[in-house]
Design a protein that fits this description.
- The complex is a heterodimer of chains A (about 200) and B (about 210).
- Chain A is mainly α and about 200 residues long.
- Chain A has helices at about 1-15, 25-30, 35-65, 75-95, 100-105, 105-110, 115-125, 130-160, 170-185.
- In chain A, helix 1 runs parallel beside helix 8.
- Chain B is globular, with a radius of gyration of 18 Å.
- The N and C termini of chain B lie far apart (about 40 Å).
- Chain B has helices at about 1-5, 10-20, 30-35, 40-65, 75-95, 100-105, 115-125, 130-160, 180, 185-200; strands at about 165, 165-170.
- In chain B, strands 1-2 form a two-stranded antiparallel ribbon.
- Helices cover about 70% and strands about 0% of the residues of chain B.
- Chain B has about 210 residues and is an all-alpha fold.
- In chain B, a hairpin with a 2-residue loop joins strand 1 (about 165) and strand 2 (about 165-170).
- The chains are: A mainly alpha (about 200), B mainly alpha (about 210).
- At the A-B interface, helix 2, helix 4, helix 7 and helix 9 of A face helix 3, helix 5 and helix 10 of B.
Chain lengths: ~200, ~210
């Protein structure tokens, strides 16, 4: 049991990395990997929200939507849950942890449109995970995302200092090349773990 | 004569902005996730593009008609619910008529909801423009998205599988570039396309 949970966790980070294998969460990935600070700030916020929405969405789908035969509307339910969670986290943080609010306040509203949050919830449904596996998978995926964005942001920062990049390639272009190379490197993990 | 007149109208502006000047993928870098993920085969790209065009035009119509009734504070969530409803229609339609494509696209159909192009156009254009202009804007942005997706998909399918829409187009001795069919290939092809289009447009990066 524990071994299979660990396997899901490692697979979600290395072999089935949500950013590098499934190409999800790319909009904020490209726009925020310009600097290491914003990348890690967004990363922490993502880990928090992804795990929390998986914790909430799994029971809603399996205990409410399936018994009542209304699985059809799960897109609407999930997206509302995500938007509401983000709003709630923002309000709670403002009230109880003003320091944290300052640290990643601007990233929170952006998370609603980060497609990996919805994607993780959809994967839970498609793959029919148990509750515990779902939470581990969601946490692992988010950690995988943070790993990828931090590596890309760090390479990008270095490259800006020493690299001689063609004008048309600056900005998003070079980030795609870095991410592609990283994805290629992560292919090397194939076989380490499987979902 | 009619053409020169048309060039000065607002409709022409709207269409050109959508199709080229503010190209959603190259200049704004929006809607990337799906563009990368479903562009390994041309048929997937076309199905995805058609779905996005349908959702964009429908939501643009609805939002433009209801724009004075939606309170500003809850507008985002309202748009989300509208978009999600239309995505369910697309999902069911694909499942019923194109089950193969539906399986190939998997969760990415549902992810049309979080495609930032749709939300972006709803927020930036449909929420304060008339019905006709909103539909034109949605249509031209949707078409721009589709042709981009299709061009990435053509490169990846020919190089990665040696086929186009399932038909063999490469010579017998062709070796498939397996990497093109996988995730890294998507990044490289999009990077090169962005490079070419930015250089051609003489665009300055920030």
């Amino acid at each position: 049991m524990l071994a299979s949970l660990l396997m899901v966790f490692i697979a979600a980070i290395l072999t089935h990395n949500i950013a590098l294998t499934y190409l999800l969460g790319m909009c904020p990935f490209i726009s925020l990997s310009k600097s290491l600070r914003t990348a890690s700030g967004m990363g922490v916020a993502v880990v928090f929200v992804v795990t929390l929405t998986a914790v909430i969405n799994w029971p809603i789908y399996n205990l409410i939507l399936v018994p009542t035969g209304t699985e059809l509307i799960y897109y609407i339910v999930f997206i509302i849950v995500i938007a509401a969670t983000v709003q709630l986290v923002e309000m709670l943080m403002e009230r109880f942890f003003p320091v944290l609010q300052v640290a990643f306040g601007i990233f929170l509203p952006l998370i609603t449109v980060n497609c990996m949050v919805l994607a993780v919830s959809l994967f839970l449904v498609i793959r029919d995970y148990s509750y515990l596996t779902s939470i581990v998978f969601a946490f692992g995926s988010a950690v995988g995302w943070i790993v990828a964005i931090v590596i890309v942001a760090a390479i990008n920062e270095k490259l800006k200092l020493i690299g001689d990049i063609p004008a048309g390639m600056k900005g998003p272009g070079i980030i795609f090349v870095i991410t592609g190379t990283l994805a290629l490197a992560f292919l090397g993990f194939t076989g380490v773990a499987n979902i | 004569m009619a053409i020169t007149n048309f060039k000065e109208t607002q409709s022409f502006e709207t269409i050109m902005n959508g199709l080229w000047r503010d190209h959603p993928i190259f200049s704004m870098v929006l809607g990337i996730c799906s563009a990368l993920a479903v562009s390994n085969k041309l048929e997937n790209a076309i199905a995805m593009g058609a779905g996005v065009i349908f959702v964009m035009v429908s939501t643009a119509t609805l939002i433009s008609l209801l724009r004075s009734l939606i309170p500003r504070r809850v507008r985002m969530i309202t748009y989300m619910v509208m978009i999600a409803s239309f995505v369910i229609i697309v999902d069911l339609f694909l499942q019923a008529f194109f089950p193969n494509i539906s399986t190939a696209l998997g969760p990415y159909v549902g992810l049309i909801i979080t495609n930032c192009i749709i939300m972006g156009r709803a927020e930036a254009f449909s929420s304060h423009n008339g019905l006709g202009q909103s539909i034109l804007d949605a249509l031209s942005n949707g078409i721009a998205y589709t042709y981009t997706l299709a061009s990435v998909a053509i490169i990846r399918e020919v190089l990665g599988f040696g086929t186009l829409l399932g038909y063999k187009v490469t010579p017998e001795s062709w070796t498939n570039w397996v990497v093109m069919a996988m995730a890294p290939g998507a990044f490289f092809v999009v990077a090169v396309i962005i490079w070419i289009s930015r250089t051609a447009a003489g665009m300055e990066s920030e």
